Amino acid sequence: MDTIFLEQVAVKTTLGVPDWERLKPQTIILDIEINYDLSKSCQSDAIEDTIDYGLVVNRIQETLTEHSFKLVEALAEHVCQLILKEFHAEKVRIKVAKPAVLPRLKALGVIIERQK
User: Fold this and answer.
1) Catalytic positions
2) What is the bridge-based pairing of β-strands 2-15 and 68-69?
3) Residues in CB range of 66: below 8 A, 6 or more apart
4) In sequence order, what are the residues at sequence separation of 6 or more whose Cβ sits closer than 8 angstroms to the Cβ of residue 62?
5) Over the stretch 46-63, which tens digit does the pLDDT of each residue have?
6) DSSP 49
7) pTM of the prediction?
8) Cα-atom radius of gyration of the chain, to the nearest Å?
């Protein structure tokens, strides 16, 4: 299986358990790996035969603007299911990082994988 990757995707969303974290949108960083059969697009050189990366990023930003989450786990699951269903991926691996949310901590987050 082939892999499309989107690295260091910065998006704004409302995320967090404490009330102070939910007062305004914060930037989170996503690293996404999408398993998809790219053999047809390798031959055709046509966007219709692959996943349009720009559409994926735009759709993620759109859904994270519409929804808020308390847990990074729930956000990660939501994005995985969106990519699996709307973009017909075989498998998705996502890393969600909340940068500099706590003192002495570069980032915190989760990595999950889901497949059809």
Assistant:
1) 98
2) parallel
3) none
4) none
5) 999 999 999 999 999 999
6) G
7) 0.92
8) 15
Tell me the per-residue pLDDT of 4-26, one tens digit each, with 9 for 90 and over. Answer: 999 999 999 999 998 888 888 99
Maximal CA-CA distance, the chain: 51
Express each pLDDT in 28-52 by its tens digit: 999 999 999 999 999 999 999 999 9
**Tokens for 12?**
């704004």
Query: Domain locations in the chain?
Result: 2-115
Q: Are 60 and 30 in contact (CB under 8 A)?
A: yes
- Which CATH number is associated with domain 2-115? 3.30.1130.10
Distance (Å, whole) CA 81 – CA 29: 18
- The tally of CA atoms less than 13 A away on the side-chain side of residue 20 is 2
Question: Can you read off the two tokens belonging to residue 76?
Answer: 């990660």
Residue 2, SS3 per DSSP: strand
